[in-house]
């Protein structure tokens, strides 16, 4: 990081950019589920269909994804904050979590908004993180629930009607 930008301040300012909360899942060689939470999931390309996310280079789940060559991105719903916190760290990330196997063999979590099943296209080292790019193989919308978001250090959900209400209150 540049000497001109202090780490804590950098995180504080970037915390004002809302991010989606996505559970990245895979299975290990024993078919046991593995996963982590990311706030950087994004579309990269339509042709071919590519998506990506950033992950700390020391992540155990990243090592499993490298070995498996596949992952599933699960868009968490607004009511899944507890699941997000559990999957963000600790040894029992899937304890009490219902899931089904995707066509590629990755966990698709119950109650989510949507999922994207991918094979690993490329992994690029960028500072202390890795950019994982995946080729989309299958994807599906599971529900019309509002998504879970992370903003200013806390969780919340997106209510599309909030913007309409504010527009009416200000007379736009």
Strand order of the largest sheet: 3-2-6-9-10-5-4
Biggest sheet overview: 7 strands, antiparallel
Rg (C-alpha, Å): 17 Å
Question: Overall mean pLDDT score?
Answer: 90
Task: Report the strand count.
Answer: 12
- Helicity range: 10-25%
Low-confidence stretches: none
Sheet-strand content, in percent, reads 35-45%
* CATH second-level architecture: Roll
Q: So how many helices?
A: 4
CATH superfamily: Electron Transport, Fmn-binding Protein, Chain A
CATH first level: which class? Mainly Beta
Distance between the termini: 42 Å
| CATH fold title | Pnp Oxidase, Chain A
What class would the helix/strand composition place it in? alpha+beta
Shape: globular
Task: Describe this protein's structure.
The chain has four helices and twelve strands; from the N terminus they run αβββββαβαββββββα. By secondary structure, the chain is an alpha+beta fold. It has one domain: Pnp Oxidase, Chain A, CATH 2.30.110.10. The longest helix has 11 residues, at 160-170. The protein is globular. The mean pLDDT is 90. This is Flavin reductase family protein. Keywords: Oxidoreductase. Belongs to the non-flavoprotein flavin reductase family.
